[in-house]
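Example complex used in Figure S2.
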Amino acid sequence: MKPPKFSYLRPNSLQEALDMLAEYGDDAKIMSGGQSLIPLLNMRLSTPGYIIDIGRVEELKGIREEEDVIVIGGMTRHVDVEKSALVREKCPLLTEGITWVGHNQIRSRGTIGGSIAHADPSAELPCMLTALRGEIVIMSREEEITVSPEEFFLSYLLTSLEPNQLIKEIRFPKIKKGSGYAFEEVARRHGDFALVEVAAVVELEADGTIADAKIALGGANSVPFIPEAVEGFLIGKMPDDSILKEAATLQLGDLDPEGDIHGSKEYRRYLSGVLLERALYKAIARAREGVFV
Amino acid sequence: MKQFVGQNVKRKEDHRLLTGSGRFVADIRIENMVEAAILRSPYAHAKIKNIELSQAKDFEGVLDVIVAADLKGKVKPFTEFVEFTLPPQLEADIKPTIKKNPEPMLAEDKVTFVGQAVAIVLAEDRYVAEDALALIKIDYEPLPVVTDPYETIKENAPVIHPELGNNIQSHFQVKVGDTTHAFRQANHIIKTRIKTPRVSGNPLETRGVIAEYQERNQQLDVWSSTQVPFMVRSYLSKLVGLVEGNIRVVAPDVGGGFGPKCAVYPEEIMIPYLAMKYKRPVKWIEDRLEHMQSTRHSRDQVHDVEVAFRNDGTILGLKDQFLLDNGAHNSFALCCAYNSAAHLRGMYHIPNYDITGRIVLTNKTPNVPYRGAGRPEAVYVMDRIIYMIADKLNLDPVEVSMRNFVRPEQMPYETGIFYRDGANMVLENGDYVKSLQQAMKIAGYEEFRQQQEEVRKNNKNIGIGFSSYIEGTGIGPFEGAAVKVDSTGHILVGVGSSPHGQSHETTLSQICADVFGVNPEQVSVRAGDTSLLPYGVGTFASRGAVTAGSAVHGASKQLKEKFLLIAGEMLGVTIDELEMQNGKVYVKLSPSQFVTLQEIAQAAKPGPRCKVPKGIEPGASATYYFVPPTVTFSSGFHVAVVEVDKETGFVDILRYIVVHDCGRVINPKIVDGQIQGGVAQGIGGALYEEIIYDKNGQLVTGTYMDYLIPTAMEVPEVEMGHQEFLSPHNPMGIKGVGEGGAISPPAAIANAVCDAMRPLKIEINTLPISPNKLRSLIEEAENAESVLK
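Predicted assembly (1082 residues):
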């Protein structure tokens, strides 16, 4: 379990990183936290000629607030998001969901940009970003562009990122007043990849009817899945047990999870419904409690 | 005088292990050393048509590439481990068929499982060695593969070793009483199939071997991460044809063994051979990918069992036919299979018993004993049966158990069969009734039943399940200890049983310290080195404390006697006037007259000042070999309290309780640690762990992403209760405790889950209880119920 030979590059600035990508991009891999890349290298499943370690690029680290969004630099570690008071206050879905990412040791090395770029369909951050309708800011030496998760995540471990591009930052919309959120996941063991997971944000009208619902399911398709019909069905409804049950199973037929030894396709599809129902309950309960008033 | 046996003496091993200053095989560096990497078969069954090595051999930094042809006539194959062959009286009783199936060091004309070693690269470092592996070209012709134990015994199955005729490697039958008659007398008969899957022991440290040969004196030094350094030395000598006295095998700090390191592996023979051949030290450290494929697996038993019982739950007879799927080879005779047969009835009085075991071969990694060694499989069968009887009769399983226990007044209880060591299998003592009562009291059984009803109204499903076990521990043939006092008065103990997490240095020093009346700090224990003693066996089968503990006790007592004799000579008094305490020997009636251990040790030196009485050899040392008459039976109960999420199929362990008897406890904390660790591995077997092969014999669970081991998050803190029935088979009354924790969790947890889902009557007779599997069982039961309605 030793990697084949590669050249190790360590830029000290964003500009230097982008220059290196421009030069070696086709044969290079960016290392941000290394939590997925290093096993791939050691098992010789990925054999890049160059590793560009962006661990010292300070411009890519940090969490800041804009009017409606929390902006997190690509090189920010999970643990910094988990412990951030700002995130807890303005986007607590992230605080809740991120504890499902691996273990402490993994979260102290792994990065937000790394997780988004790795694009594992059962990873927590892509799912939460999709539910929140966030954005990904991508940079190359030539330009800076902003894309939606739907444009970014193409399939299993595949994104729209070009070899000369890196993730600069990720924009997570804040959770609005009158909204409740929930993150539900089941994994074989604590810290394992999710069998399925659901992130949901539900906004209620003053009379208790649903004003808006934003949902994403992870692990159920090749990319995080937005159940648009479920969202549409919920808007304007007064939520009760039967409405939520109906909503939870409405789009199970659109899910196409991969079956493996930890759970068959059918089981994961069925579980998606169970978790979606639980997530909606929790989000609505929180909205009613006015956690964000 | 303060006694240290029975005290929580702090572990002597902890400081170095917790500060990272332990020394494992991989930490050893020798000048001029080369590293080995091994090419392993990607096929489960294939002919090797051609091997092309030139590119790999020419690669920069490669010393050589070795294949089976290079070993021909130089290194013999493994045939069987004679240590595990049956004693004659047992052989005569059960008349087994056991076919020998030699295992080559490197695959010769064909491979029989994925992960089998095919070629070895020696190179300047491991990186280069792995680069060169990719340059070896092997032309394989795939052969039909068999991975299922029932498929492999069919007439038309592909035969793995043609010289065996078929894939049934061993066969035996054990009979007590008359089951035919018993089954005729019964009110009820239940018949079912119960399966324990294949798992892997997964020590934290993988295997690893370093060897250095010094031509000037023909000395071969080997360091191996093994449980049995003496066995490695013996087979190295036999298979390579070396003078045993020139070989020293050392097991340095070893990060866990659990059974898979209790055999000799091809690498432990080849690496030393190559160090001799190339006259350079050679290092091979197994990585985790290799470990999952090639370190031996375990369990993999299917039982077809039938039980006959009366209306009141009394069991009259038990019949069982089981298969042990041993993978591509078996060099351990009947070890695990016979253990299963001998332990299946456990603590129950079942006078009519008929069990047939067959060890079958498939295209999978060979199996070896792993913590529990055939007992978790047997206990799972027996305790599922107890619950199924309870279900059938609508009785409390505790009541069914109580009705069938061997009772204290029946002790010592003759089981009517031989143990694996050839002695009559006799349960020497214990009180199973009281022990179960104690466990249920800790669990709060009565209150739990009320609570269970209450929460069920809120759609919450909690359940309680128990399991019992007995375990023959401390198997022979012997273990030795050499005790000496140096010229500073410090005591040195050398033992043949080598540790890999058991705390030998602490517990054995406690035993020795008590004999001499000194503090354990004044005693140093050395183990894991064939140069310490002429003979040694090893650490496995819950035998360390029983056998090495008794050996240290015996050797210490002998040396104490000798020291009293020398002291008598020095003080001019007779031995019965003396007493040894606090590192001194006093004249009892005149305590101001004394000599210290240091003075006695100096007076034991040969020469003109020697005070050793005439007729006795000078020297301050004694060696003693303890030969146990037979094993000693530990026992216990496990109780699991679980909550089942009916919708998802997930199981949460709320509480876990163990009440056990391991005879004299040397160090309570260390015993608790053994139980807690064993339970963790048992929980793995119950809920998470399974080695899975696909139809082509490819290992599906080749990494820790797919082979799930419970972490600290999945393992609750075990609540413990102790009983101390001293064994009559050794002077201190010790029984073994290394494996007990791992034996009962699958049965206890499966029973608890069935109990939680009781209104639905589901039976969990296969493991692990994955959420997917459990959810399917719940769904089936719900559907069946709605059909009835």
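Chain B has a mean pLDDT of 97. Chain B touches chain A through 27 residues (CB under 8 Å).
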